[in-house]
Every structure is written in structure tokens, then in C-alpha cells.
Amino acid sequence: MDLIMAGQGAGAFWVAVAVTLVAGFVKGAVGFAMPMIMISAFSSFLPPDLALAGLILPTLVTNLSQALRQGIGPALATTAKFWRFLLAMAVFIIVSAQFVRVLPQPAMLLLLGVPITAYAAFNLSGRSPTLPLRHQRVAEWGLGVLGGLYGGVSGVWGPPLLVYLLSTGVPKLETVRALGVAFLLGAVTLLGAHIQTGLANPASLGFSAALVIPAQIGMSLGYALQDRLDQNRFRWWTQAVLIVMGLNLIRRALM
């Protein structure tokens, strides 16, 4: 057990397992929010470095499942469609990961949390903004950079992509698949970056690997719910989860 507990007590380990199971369920249902749930809960009872390292392997494995759920062909097509966002995100995850221990995280979390919450609340009020076609390429590059900057230091890079997908009216299945592809690429990049920084080491990765099982169980349960959601209900739930995520980012920043 010492190999998977990373020096933490049994109580902390089993709480981490329970948190990961819940996070996996939410991700299976709406396609995102797993890293946010995990890092938010983990930060309350685990050392900061271990909290971030713990989510790396569960997010990598569950995103592989999510990206390939309809097969490799659709996954490759989605990758080609959103390559600008994915490239910018990957590059800036590597860049920002080098500063994980020195950047003022509260300020970054606040700058992400406020607009994300405002955007989702605006959508839930019944006024859904759309992105003009001529601006989509610029938005892909810009939001990809933004997602990467936050991803390298917090392990969370999904909200900017979700804002883009909702603003351009992408259907449910492609939205979930695009999130899976982006999160998979981000998770691989994050793993590589933090192997270099030393945050991902044998002890922390053993702990992270143990959380893959509850993550996958939660995902399977969440998929069953996702399959029963129509486009409108799916959109409503994604907006609701975005608001919770945004408010949590603000809470973390202020604390």
C-alpha cells in the first residue's frame, strides 16, 4: 500500500478514491469537470504537488476512453477540425508548467473563474451568444493559449474550449469527443512537462495510478446518464456545471 499512498494516511487515500469516483461520474455525464473536482477536493487534504500529480493518470486514461468512444476515425476528424486550439493549448501547457511553483495562482484562478461564471450564467438566462464564423479561427488560437496557460499550473484547461464549443453550437457527441481529444492531448503534455519538473515522480505517479480504477468506474456510470440526455438538457447541464466550476475557481482564488 505504501507504493500507492505516497506517504499519506489510509483515510486520505480512501477519501481521494471517493472524490475520484464522483469526478469520473460527472465527466462521464457531461464530458468535463473531472480535474476541477479532483484538484478542488484534493487541495483541502493533500499537499499541493501531490494534489496536482494525483489527477494526471486518471485524466489521461479517462480522456482516452472519451476521445475514442465512437472510434478512432471520428477522433482523428475532430482533432483535424480543432487543431489550432489543440496546438496552442499543448504549447502553452509546456510553457506554463515550468512556472507552476512561482506564478501567483490566486490571480490566475480569479481571472478564469469570473468570466467563466458570467458566461455560463448568461447562457442559462436564455441568451446564448454565438461566435461569428469570421472570428472562429482567432478564438481557437486565443482560447487555446488561455487554456494552456491555466492547464500547466492548475491541471485544468477545459473551460476555454467548452466556451468555444458552446458558442459555435457544436452538437453533443462532437462536443464530448472534442473535449476528450483536447483533454487527452493536455494530459499527455502535462505528464511529460511534470516528469521534467519533478512533480510527477514514482511516488506521486503510484498514487495517481491507483485512482485510475475509481475514475473509470465513475466514467462508466456517467456514460449511462449522458446517453439519456438530449441536446438541450445536455447544454443546460454543461452550463450548470460550468457555473459551479467558475464559482469554485473564484473561491479558491479568494482563499
Automatic annotation (TrEMBL):
Membrane topology: Multi-pass membrane protein
Any single Gene Ontology cellular-component annotation: plasma membrane
Family under the similarity heading: Belongs to the 4-toluene sulfonate uptake permease (TSUP) (TC 2.A.102) family.
This protein's record includes keyword Hydrolase: no
Keyword vocabulary terms for this entry: Cell membrane, Membrane, Transmembrane, Transmembrane helix, Transport
InterPro entries in UniProt: TM_pro_TauE-like, TSUP
Protein name stated in the entry: Probable membrane transporter protein
Pfam family membership, one: TauE
Domain of life according to the entry: Bacteria
Spans through the membrane: 12-30, 36-61, 82-100, 106-126, 138-156, 176-193, 205-224
Compartments, record wording: Cell membrane
